[in-house]
Amino acid sequence: MSTIALTKENFDEVVAGNDFVLIDFWASWCGPCRQFAPVFEAASERHPDLVFAKVDTEDQQELAAAFEIRSIPTLMIVREKVAIFAQPGALPEAALEDVIGQARKLDMDEVRKSVAEQQAGAAE
């Protein structure tokens, strides 16, 4: 499966409409981004059940700002509308596969419970 270009117009639809989305925040002038691109694309071929998307931070500055992207490339994983992973840096293939594997194994009921507890604690 090829990657999807995310924009502020389609972001909510793509993330809400899919249970597992990997997002690569990148820019064309960024050397590490260009190094990571084929790794990300190859992973999309190995995992056709997942959605692989890219945000061009130059073109989509509002999205990059909304997620407080300070360094690119940044990989973010959203499962069931919850951001469960975000890390800057170009991951090598083995590390990307490891992150995907760990994200697949997460118990999303436990994640949502933890998020709810954190939000309740912050509200006090």
TrEMBL record:
InterPro entries named among the record's database cross-references: Thioredoxin, Thioredoxin-like_sf, Thioredoxin_CS, Thioredoxin_domain
Ranges where the Thioredoxin domain occurs: 1-105
Any GO CC annotation of this UniProt entry: cytosol
GO molecular function, one term: protein-disulfide reductase activity
CDD domains: TRX_family
Gene3D superfamilies registered for this protein in UniProt: Glutaredoxin
UniProtKB keywords: Disulfide bond, Electron transport, Redox-active center, Transport
Any matching Pfam family: Thioredoxin
NCBIfam families xref list: thioredoxin (TIGR01068)
Family to which this protein belongs: Belongs to the thioredoxin family.
UniProt-recorded name of the protein: Thioredoxin
Species for this entry: Streptomyces termitum
Origin organism lineage: Bacteria, Bacillati, Actinomycetota, Actinomycetes, Kitasatosporales
